[in-house]
Amino acid sequence: MNDSDGRKRAAGELESQVMSVLWAAGRSMTPAEVQAELVPAPAYNTVQTILIRLVDKNVVRRSRAGRAHSYEPVRSEADAAAAKLHATLDGVGDRQLTLQRFAESLDDAEAQVLRRLLADLEREGR
Asked: Given a cut of 70, is residue 6 above it in pLDDT?
């Protein structure tokens, strides 16, 4: 699929952009509203097709909005990202090494946040 500037889009790039628009909006949106937020704006039918695919993947839910449909994410952006991270861990052979490499890649502020969150979970008995 090409953008209006002729650039070839990476697989899944438009789906990611559509999800970003929906998460940022914080409300249900029609295909036309989503299209208006995308730069460069793909064809309306392209946006509609992407939204339908996302519904089929159970990532987005569809509801009636007059004669049209509106769409909203099933999960928050943070929940979706956490599920992706968990799926990645499930797909690797050495989870500990993968977690170690991830921890090594964190900057000081991110590592501090992670330490605090883990300490909070430990205090809660999880």
From this structure: no
| Inter-residue contact 73 to 59 (CB < 8 Å) | yes
Look up residue 86 and give its two tokens: 């968990």
- CA dist 107 and 105 (Å) reads 7
Instruction: State the angle between helix axes of 44-56 and 13-25 in degrees (0 to 180), rounded to the nearest 10.
Output: 80
CA 121/CA 104 separation, integer angstroms? 21
Residue 74's pLDDT band, with cuts at 50, 70 and 90, is very high
Cis check: omega of the bond before 40, within 30 degrees of 0: yes
* pLDDT value, residue 83: 92
| DSSP code, position 41 | P
CA distance 126 to 109: 23
Confidence grade of residue 47 (pLDDT, cut at 50, 70, 90):
very high
Q: What is the CA radius of gyration of the chain?
A: 19
